[in-house]
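quick one, 278 residues, struct below
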Amino acid sequence: MEIFDAAWLALREPIDGRSRAELLLKHLYGAWEERGWTRILDLGSGTGANFRYLAPRLPGEQVWVLLDHDRSHTQKLARLQRPALVSGLTIICGDVAEEGLTAVQDTDLVTASAMLDLVSEGWLQRIVSCCLATGCGAYFPLNYNGGINWLPKHATESGGNTVVNDNLVREAVNTHQLTDKGLGPALGPLAVQKAERLFRDAGYWTLSVESPWLLGSADAPMVRRLLEGWVSAVADLYSGDVSELQVWADERLEDVSRGRCILRVGHSDLLALPPGRV
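---
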């Protein structure tokens, strides 16, 4: 799997926290309590953002397993503070395609934040099969769904002809999202749709809700990081002068920093509950 540095994870954690779909969370908390679940597996845990968000909010006793393939992240995970209701915490340094799938057999709920758009359809089919065999639920928040919109809408033009504009960048980024992130060709923006269909075909009750990032002037450091990544990704596919991409990025960053527009980055959350009470 792709490796994300701790600085990036720290930058996105508060934005992720305010963006999660509340309607879906209400269903998750209700199912957790009603079904008497206690065991939760967090795949691709990073530095523990998903744990820090969910552990204080889930009702009742919790036994967590956190798995990540980056040893520097798992060392940080081992130092996490546990809320009172967390009676067990196990850290695994392993691959989501190997140790991660094996660990599903011992859980009530599998979760992974911001991951589905990075995985392949083959991995997705395997995780759905593992969940079905175990009878566990699944909660996958904050998956990129292809939306990059600057509000109000506007584009950069030169001499009456669009050189680099918002649509070009969005389409190039979404094409780049389909490249291999370590588990085969990635699902990218279609991930949640495909995951929801697979879970429904397996007999699960599902709910997907949009959870977009809305980034304004106070989020300029995040916008800067996103633009840097997008310019790098688009440069691999763009046949024109790469300096034009940087001009576009500089103008967009200034627009946000000065409060002239906000950046909406589309994400979707998915909850899948096994047959039974909902």
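DSSP finds ten helices and ten strands in the chain.
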